[in-house]
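User: Structure with adenosine monophosphate, tokens only please.
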Amino acid sequence: MIIFKKTRDLHKWLEAQRLAGISIGFVPTMGALHTGHLSLIESSIKANPVTVCSIFVNPTQFNDPKDFEKYPITIEKDIELLANAGCDILFLPSVKEIYPDELSPSLKYDLGYLERILEGKFRPGHFQGVCMVVHRLLEIVMPDNFYLGQKDYQQCMVIKKLIALIGLSNAILVNICPTLREPDGLAMSSRNVRLNEDERIKATAIFRNLSFIKENLTTGDLKGLKETAFRNLSEAGFNVDYIEIADANDLSIIDDWDGQKKLVALAAAFMTEVRLIDNILLN
Ligand code: AMP
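Assistant:
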């Protein structure tokens, strides 16, 4: 595996591949890699002769400075995992390399409704930061195939919208990979290592309650079902931002189901200081 720290060097190397007609797969991450991340790398390796992974803890997407300070960093282990997985290129830029000028946004991405609901509502500015970094990374890597995890459902929709806004929908194919879970159902996440033993056990309530929604879904009014799931999650020790049912295609909130629309249940909640998110498709 080749490790690039400089944008110019990576860009030049990838340009040569592109000229040779080689397809490039790209998996952006914030490091502290786990099996979920590696499943994206694996998907990319299967479909592309060159797979690029980036590790960059993007300061502009953290609306909570404490979350940024405490974000786990395990770079030596990450390098080993990526090399063993067969990843070709690791891009490991500094903040200056990604944001040479300044950290404040130079562009406002028009994400519309997506920025006002769920993660957008509870993490103001978060998706603008995500768009800033992804826009920059896409300009540098210009992948043919882009790999994202369904674990960040709303982020996948935001990034698809970004790709359309910057006119790259025809150049880049977005591949959404399934959420990998621990045996007890907890979605794998870099933040899970911040949970103590007791919190780690309690954390399974997120997946349990998303599954509870799935098992008890009926046509008609959904408010009671959502309220029960919210209460269960609070009683399990979570400080809940939301547990919601939405249209899987556009994320509009569904309170009354016609029995036809494709639905997704999504949750975000704090176990003490650690904010966890998850989602499952319902039908
Ligand atoms: P992150 O390092 O958290 O920014 O995640 C990098 C990529 O890995 C994103 O596209 C995530 O959606 C994806 N990812 C994170 N957790 C999982 C998981 N448990 N299963 C599959 N993909 C994941």
